[in-house]
Structure formats: structure tokens, C-alpha cells
Amino acid sequence: MTSRELVIGLLGKGSFDRVGVFEHFWADTLEVWLSQGYPSVMPAESDTVAEEAHTVRISHVVPSELRGKNAPVPANPYRHFDFDMHPCGGGFDLEPIRGYEEILEETNEWIIKRNGAGATFKYWKHKSGTPEHIGFRMTSREIWEKDYRPHLLTVDRERLKSGAFKNSTLSEDRAELEYARTTQKWAHFAHIGLWEVMRGSLGDLCMYESLLTDPGWIHDFNRVYTDFFKVHFQALFDELGLPDGVWIYDDIAYRNGLFASPRTLRDLFLPYYAELVDFFHSHGLPVILHSCGNITRALPLIVEAGFDGLHPLEIKAGCDPFRFAEQYRDRLAFIGGLDVRILETNDRATIVRGVSDLVEGMKARGARYLFATDHSVTPLVHYESYQLALDVYRQHMRY
Predict the structure, then answer these.
(1) If the chain, 399 residues long, is cut into consecutive pieces of 10 residues, what is the mean pLDDT of each piece?
(2) Is 136 helix (H, G, I), strand (E, B) or coil?
(3) Residue 259's closest CA among 289, 291, 287, 233?
(4) How far is residue 265 from each of residues 94, 198, 219, 259, 320, measured CA to CA in Å?
(5) So what CATH class is 3-96+139-396?
(6) What's the pLDDT at 379?
(7) What is the widest separation between alpha-carbon atoms in the chain?
(8) Residue 52 has what pLDDT?
(9) How are the residues of the chain apportioned to helix, strand and coil, as percentages rounded to the nearest 5?
(10) How much is the pLDDT for 63?
């Protein structure tokens, strides 16, 4: 059974004979791993697709600020490791004013930029992670309607060429899709979703206030962006062809629970999530939702919206993969759930026990499961520790 056939089965459209595997990595992790035996390529090699070297432009994975101009760069992990899923880009510029970037302040350590949604963020140059929120212009329905909404109402194919969520070109995405087809991996496009778009446009304070004081604006924002996503994903499919599925990255929770009540999510977001999922399903594409944090109370809504898979089952936020599997094994595939702190111990016995207990526990509960950490592999994890985790997974992967 190929990786593609396996994942199709795990997502509910066929048979499967083993647990799948996939992973995300912090960019810093791969840089640290270079000194621990992780393969590298020279920058000139990383600028072109090189199947024999199993690498692509490393800008997909490692920001240029984290490495010297001519220093070796880490090989692309999605070609280095034998994962069942293969990311193939699929992002596009979703800010109302396409391609806009205004640099407001810059030092050797950080840079502050305003984007095409009027949002200002501070980015650290020498480390990866979430940027700091500085300020937002889109603080009322009037500003949204006058300055930003009109830019989102028509199809703009130029948006496909670049975007905040992707650093690749269409030709590179096409090459990755072809690589996935050639190697029989499950190819997916990915993008952020409605919650992340709104939070990144309005800012936390305005967004949370407006959920209560101006739900009409929230509905209109989600209506516009739902239509926007549908027409631009259709343009992307027309340009590149169909992948095997889609990932939507939308952090609707944090370590203590949901950012909004289940009732608010149901009233203001569920109809639009369901419409987007239906759109992808109409193309035969399953949809995986990524949400960090404790999403336990949102599980009924995630299932009702029609999502086919859920990632990453964050243990340190209070998620319980075994309980999720017991309740929803017939409705969702599960990806993740290995507490990354187990790997961070870099202790062989701890890693062997943690991986085997998780994989065997999910199998015992009849889960359709893909092995991965509960967020991303951090720089505290040694390269050989992650390799050990994969070895233990393979020893226990058969159903």
C-alpha cells in the first residue's frame, strides 16, 4: 500500500493497514540539527528543485535571516524523511491590498512591518516563531467597508504567486505536486483559515469585542472571505491541478481552552467552515483542521462542520488523544498527540515508552491515526532522538 493509498484510507475513503506518519519542524530545529548529522545542501543547490538531492528551496522551511549568505542549508525535511503526507504549497495572498508591505522600523535584531490588511507586526530576524502584534487599522466596520472589503470581491490571479502563508512560487508548488505524485505521497495544499485571517486583520481586542457587539460585521467578514477562499482556491486548482487534500490552519484555542465559546463559534463561524469544507469535498478533497490549544469543547463543532482530520492534539494544553479517539474515531482521523516534551528529554527509555504507548493506545481504540508530535519538533530535540522516535513508531505501526 502506497503512502497516498494509506492516507486516503485513514481519512475515511478506503482501507488502511498501518498508522501513518507526518511532522512539522521549527526552522531553528533544522539549523541546530546540521551540527548533529542532519543533511545539508549549498544555497545554489537549494534554489532549484533537485530530486536526486531530495531538496527544494529551503526558504520553504528556514528563513534566510537564520543562516549566513553562503552557509550550507538544511535539506528539506519533507523529502528527507519518509513521511506519508507531502506539503505542496497552495497558499496565496489574502490581504485586501495585495503585495503591500511597509517597513516602519528595523534593527539588527528585528523588523516592524505593516501589511495589506493594515496590521503591524514585529518579526525577530534571528529566530523563528509568532510575530509580536503591534497595531491594527481595521478597527471598525466602517473602515473595513471603505478601505479593505472592496479589494476582496473579485478574483485576482496575481494573488496566487505569493502570500503571507507561503514563500514558494507556482512553479515550485507544481514541482512539489509532481514529486508527491512520482513518489506516491499524499499531496496537500495548505492555508490559514477564517479565524486566523480575522485575528490578524482586526487584532485580538477589536475582534473579541466585535464578536459580542457587532456580530453583523463578523458575519460579513466571514462571508466575504469564504467567497474569497472559494474562488481563489478554484483558480489555484485550475492552475496547478488538484492535490489529494487540504490543510486549514486556524488556531481557535490556546492552552486554557477556546478563544470563544462554542455558542459563539457555532453562530459566527460554523456555517462558513461548513461551506468551505463542502467546497473542498465537492472536488473530492478531504480537509484537515490544525488548531493548537485545548480544542476539546470544539470537537462537536469540528465534526459538524465536516472536517475529516484533526491536528495536533496538543497534550500540554489539555487535549486527550485517547478520549478523542474513543468519542470520534468514526468521524475523524487524528494526527499528532505525542507530547514533544517527551522528545525533548532526549532520553532513550522515555522516548521508546512514550511513542509506543501512544501508538498502541490509539490503535487499541480503533483510531485512524497518523503519528506526529503535538505541535512541532523544537530545537531542544536532538536529531538522533527524533530518528529514534521514528524507529519506534515503525516497530508499532501495523494495525
Answers:
(1) 98 95 95 95 53 33 51 91 95 94 95 96 86 96 98 96 65 94 98 97 97 98 98 97 98 96 98 98 98 98 98 97 97 98 98 98 98 96 98 98
(2) strand
(3) 291
(4) 22, 13, 11, 9, 21
(5) alpha beta
(6) 96
(7) 60
(8) 30
(9) 50, 20, 35
(10) 47
Q: How far apart are CA 203 and CA 134, in angstroms?
A: 9
Please, are residues 235 and 160 in contact by the beta-carbon 8 Å criterion?
Answer: yes
For the chain, the residue count is: 399
- Break the chain into its structural domains and give their ranges: 3-96+139-396
Residue 272, all three cell numbers: 462558513
Grid cell in block for residue 26: 521549527
State the alpha helices, DSSP H only, in the chain: 3-8, 27-33, 43-46, 77-80, 141-143, 170-183, 194-202, 204-213, 215-240, 262-268, 270-282, 299-305, 321-328, 340-344, 348-364, 383-396
CA distance linking residue 337 with residue 238, whole number of Å: 35
Instruction: Compute CA distances 383 → 33, 130, 135, whole Å.
Output: 6, 23, 38
